[in-house]
Amino acid sequence: MNILGIHDGKDAGVCLLVDGKPVFAANEERFSRKKLHFGFPHLSLASLFETTGMKPSDIDRVSVGFTAMVETADYPIYSDIDDSKLFQNIFARVTRSLGPLTSTRPFIKMSQYGLAFLSKNKPALEADLRKSGINAPVEYVDHHRSHAASAYYTSGFTDALVITADGGGDGLAGSIYVGQQGKLEMINEWPRVHSAGNFWFLITNLCGFDPIRHGGKITGLAAYEPCQETYEILSEFFGHDPRRPSFKNKKHILFGDAYHALSRALEGYSIHQISYGAQKVLEESICGVVKAAVERTGLRKLALAGGTFANVRLNQLILELDCVDEIFIHPHMGDGGVTVGSALDVTASQMQKQNKQLMPAAIDNVYWGNATDEATIIEAIKEYPVKATRLDDPAPDIASCLASKKIVGLFNGRMEYGPRSLGQRSIIAEPTDPTMMDWLNERLERTEFMPFAPIILEEDAPKYFENFAPGKLPAKFMTLCFDCTEYGKEMAPGIVHKDGTARPQTVNASENHYVYKALKAYKELTGLSLGINTSFNKHEEPIVCHPRDALDELVRGGVDVLFIENYRIENA
Predict the structure, then answer these.
(1) pLDDT score of 438
(2) Number of domains in the chain
(3) Pick from 184, 254, 348, 483: most CB atoms within 10 A?
């Protein structure tokens, strides 16, 4: 059974499941080079067919991770948005302009205020599918159920408490499911007015950042200047309801009302202090929801998805709760992950009709995107003023470059699915320089407040990170923090945040042989089992996809040396 998952909203993309197993998944931004691409994913769909060898006629069903889509073709929408800034800055404009809008008005009223393009159009989506040669039936899956399915069926937990939380989708901002023996049952959900994601958008906007793209900056800033006063102020506005349980917008105010009220309440406080208070409120609230849900269900293994769980510090604190044994966060927790989630849910329902059951299976990697053949690599290299050497084994050269403190670009294998670079499209560097965050961010034209994440040999991770064992699976995907050991702080200060944490990605020989061999060689040279790992892109651009994208960064000066598969490439 071949299920195509597709998403044509924010962070559009596609996936292909064959008998419940992901064989391809990628998001359109990588191919279009438009961050968080909004519109039909033509390019990623083409890559899916090219990579898998499937034909449009091979698709049995199509899944979409939203149900609240406009039914009429006459409804005014944009199926593709050429000006990416239009979508990036929409929340900032909304919060400043919709002063009278509060939760007493239905959320659908948003369309009256010029946001109709956020609505989806079923006829337009299905017409694009038909133009692509896909004539399979289309199923629309509730947005939060899609998130829940993405987490549960890729966790490996037969019985799990499944929690979703985000800005909102299909009128909801969160849900709680019980996953047992391959079946998902919803036991609670909460409406969009009580949105942890919208709370985070507001805080990000108040601190002067793009709320769609830069929520992670707030998590980084939170460690710089603790401030109990901002926590107490924000606690008057937001928290949780342990009886429901759910995140809670205590004053029931949205958009302009909330923006102006928070601006007045937090006047005079720095963005560091505001970030501290917001992070603490989010942690306390979501952990409260988790504790209440565990008490209600008795399930101590958690599967999580939705944009709120992009907050790696929050995920760490959830794992550390006494009532939690293990957690798993779907590697693409945001809207771009509903392709996989909706396809898994449709697969499960189709199997149940055949008296079969789709059981959760722990994923060991998310290298589900496209690869690049050698002919394409050679053709791209010829277009640039660079010198290239083909190596039998690049690992010793990569290790030598790291040891000599060079910034290395890696482009190998199939592209990672999700928002994190996981070694296939990564920039790596040595981890001992505590000033690296400043000068490498400047070089990459970024403004960040967290140190770069480490990429580390899986077998050595417990030497560097506390309480590693229960977080071993999510650590493959860089989705939670750990406290660093004293050894880790001493040996690799460049990875340690102000609060003593780091957000690692582990690699082993079977799942990423290319990077594993390079780190083993680096360990032989230096005794260190890890390097810095950051996404291979400059600020405000998607992660590289084509060799030309990587070569552009080399020529621009973003990296010193580029390794594309077995080719070592440097500026001529």
Answers:
(1) 86
(2) 2
(3) 254
